[in-house]
Write a structure and sequence with these properties.
Order of helices and strands: EHEEEHEHEEHE
Helix content: 25-40%
Largest sheet: 6 strands, parallel
Structural class: alpha/beta
Strand order of the largest sheet: 3-2-1-4-5-6
Number of strands: 8
Number of helices: 4
Shape: globular
Radius of gyration: 18 Å
């Protein structure tokens, strides 16, 4: 029996890779997002999940923290949005929630990569986990490292690796500056 899957954050690069993979496996996919998808869902506001959805995958995220409005949107989307997804899933009788978080959610405060994004992702994970525990709802939280893919849409959040890949593709030298031991952990979207 085919399952009905709702993907929230349909405009994200990860959702664009996930949708065809689910379609290949005979899932019925409904997409949702603030500006893209079959259904309009804005995680900064209360919403309802369509009927007959078995699984919800939340790929939505906000990254902007250069302005006061950006900070608020990042918190609303990443933290309260994760909670709203779980609440809507509970009301709709969804059997499984998959929340795509980030490895950033478990960074220590001393990390040079600790940011508003990391804080809000951690808040979202904690809220979703506690809510689903209280209402005995299955929840899977995935915390991937930096995601890259074949689509250039991933370059917006991973400019470093795409700069290196572009230079390598053109046969140009790659110069890395700095004194830090810059460790990176990249994961291809299809592997995720």
């Amino acid at each position: 029996m085919s399952k009905n899957v709702l993907i929230i954050g349909a405009g994200s690069a990860l959702a664009k890779v996930t949708i065809p993979l689910l379609n290949e496996r005979d899932y019925t996919v409904v997409t949702a997002g603030r500006t893209h998808g079959d259904v309009r869902i804005d995680l900064t506001k209360p919403f309802t999940i369509p009927t007959n959805v078995d699984v919800v995958i939340n790929c939505a995220a906000a990254f902007e923290s250069d302005t006061d409005e950006g900070w608020l949107e990042t918190e609303e989307t990443n933290a309260l949005g994760a909670l709203r997804v779980c609440m809507a899933a509970h009301r709709a009788g969804v059997s499984q929630v998959v929340h795509i978080s980030s490895l950033s959610a478990v960074l220590p405060k001393s990390s040079p990569y600790y940011s508003a994004y990391a804080v809000t992702k951690r808040n979202g994970d904690d809220l979703a986990e506690q809510y689903c525990k209280q209402f005995e709802m299955p929840l899977a939280i995935l915390r991937p490292s930096q995601i890259y893919g074949n689509d250039e849409a991933f370059a917006a959040h991973q400019p470093f690796i795409y700069h290196i890949l572009d230079r390598a593709e053109r046969g140009e030298d790659i110069t890395i500056y700095g004194k830090h031991d810059a460790l990176r952990n990249y994961l291809h979207a299809e592997d995720l």
